[in-house]
Amino acid sequence: MLVKEASQRLARRTGVAAALLGSGARRGILGGSRTPAVFAADATRARADGGRRASTTAAGEPQPQAPRSSNYALAFALGSMVSGGLAYYFASSDTTESNKTNTDFNTQYGSPEDFKKAVKELQEAFKHDEDALSTDEDELERHGLANFDMHPGTIPSVVVFPTSTEDVVKIVKIAVKYRMPVVPFSGGTSLEGHFLPPSIGGISIDMHRMDKIVEIHEADSDVVCQPGVKWMDLNDYLKKKGIPLFFPLDPGPGATLGGMLSTGCSGTNAVRYGTARAEWFLNATVVLPSGEVIKTRRRARKSSAGFDTTKLFIGAEGTLGIVTEVTIRLAPVLQTNVAVVQFPDVQKATEAVIELVNSGIGIQCVELVDDMFMKGTNMYGMSPRKWPEKDSLYLKFQGPTPRALQENAEVAKKITSKYGATGFTFARNEKEAEDLWTDRKNAVYSGLAMVPGSKAWGTDVCVPVSRLPELVYETKKDLAAHGIMSTIIGHVGDGNFHALLLYRTPEESAIAYEAGKRIVKRAIDLDGTCTGEHGVGLGKKGWLYEELGEGTIELMRTIKKAIDPLNLFNPGKLYPDQPSKK
Ligand SMILES: Cc1cc2nc3c(=O)[nH]c(=O)nc-3n(C[C@H](O)[C@H](O)[C@H](O)COP(=O)(O)OP(=O)(O)OC[C@H]3O[C@@H](n4cnc5c(N)ncnc54)[C@H](O)[C@@H]3O)c2cc1C
What we know:
With 582 residues, the chain is an alpha+beta fold.
């Protein structure tokens, strides 16, 4: 067994821990909602103040925040960029309290007295392990106030840090005895209020001590891990060990395998490797709400033995079970190189992408950026070049040799030129490739650079690739009509796009916010989805009936009720309220 450094834990506590210290009264052991605190991207400030998080209250007033590391400031800024700007609206339009549980699910939880007893029993059960449990106020706030989105925060009653499946079973059994909600928390990078406890409080199960790489099977290209392993750490570890394999799902920095499985994540690599819903997760060990432990499958690369029960938990957002171990597939590490190319418009760029992807050349990422993004990149001033301010594609090629990369680029240049592309720039060396990709990665900073002092709402919709030009065109028209400055970035190979809607005042914020709603509606009307990769949580559940239809939602609810009849696991998330029968 390969044991990771304990220092990770310290880093988490000092880094990700920074809690919102807004105007809401601090709460004690029983949990409770705080004054809604919303915030959005303000990368300039995040950098300038050495990691103090900038936030706004619901009224848009800036609130000074606790210091955090500069890495975290970066992650925060990026996270804010992609945070679900629609979340607060939909949460509050769904229910009077955003994380109230759906009324046709069980809502009869234990009393405050019961919760106190549960905490006592947990303390007793883990008395041999002084790091296993916390009711420390900072720790509660860290687990109950979203770092990256603007959902109203709610603190849990207690945080428990298991180290094994057996620990998780113990916690679940106590939760069941006292009818206490249980909310898994891993990397804490999700963007739609996913890990916020319900307003009555509950047990936050923080999986970060379950961060062991258990077995590496290089010959089989798979690895068995505990769920608290971070994808970036895993890839670093494999590289350090000289194992030429990697895990290609790439959501937010700091995301863990358990959280990634549970949100059905993906990232820029999805065009080549697919999402968490492809077979990257071979099996999962899961603690069910009954306390029973199941393993969904064995380690074989494929199996037709019955339902795909692993998939049941992918995207379930911790509402059906707590994942305590996973076996994941790995992909061979290949060489990469980067190119940037400009187009007359988004339509042409997208048409070129369709042909590029269908040509079968080795492409790992295809990122669409609009003219405003390029303008922001120039204004931001960190790029070694001045770019034409035109709709563009960033392409990351992959291949076994430099020659293969060169050939891929030549084919790509030929294809893109058919669609009116100009200025095809292929990196001449590793440094240039890194510089080009860094411009893309600086999306938040360069976007915000366009309007000094601005903040931003983000969106996360996805449509069939061929419908993307229409979505982007209509969106840009709409934003222009409402005077909203924005940049657009799309994982265009998948039809997924994020708009960074900039605002400075509460009035502008409200206008941007409404525009975000229209983007979601437009995406669904184009046979798309309200969330391409971030998941539902609290923020998107109001859209699910429209997107999936009543029958599908009813099936999801039936499964939830069968597995978790007491509605203890992450209540209030994912499943939308039933429409009123009036
Ligand atoms: C800067 C930034 C960039 C991002 N970019 C992307 C992107 O490109 N693509 C993308 O998909 N996402 C992106 N995200 C969102 C985020 O990284 C993903 O949603 C990620 O999968 C969440 O993982 P996590 O470990 O942080 O989970 P958490 O936030 O801790 O939890 C997410 C959900 O999973 C549940 N959960 C956690 N652990 C378990 C477990 N062991 N068992 C059962 N349930 C569990 C939680 O209860 C919660 O509902 C980004 C976020 C940030 C901040």
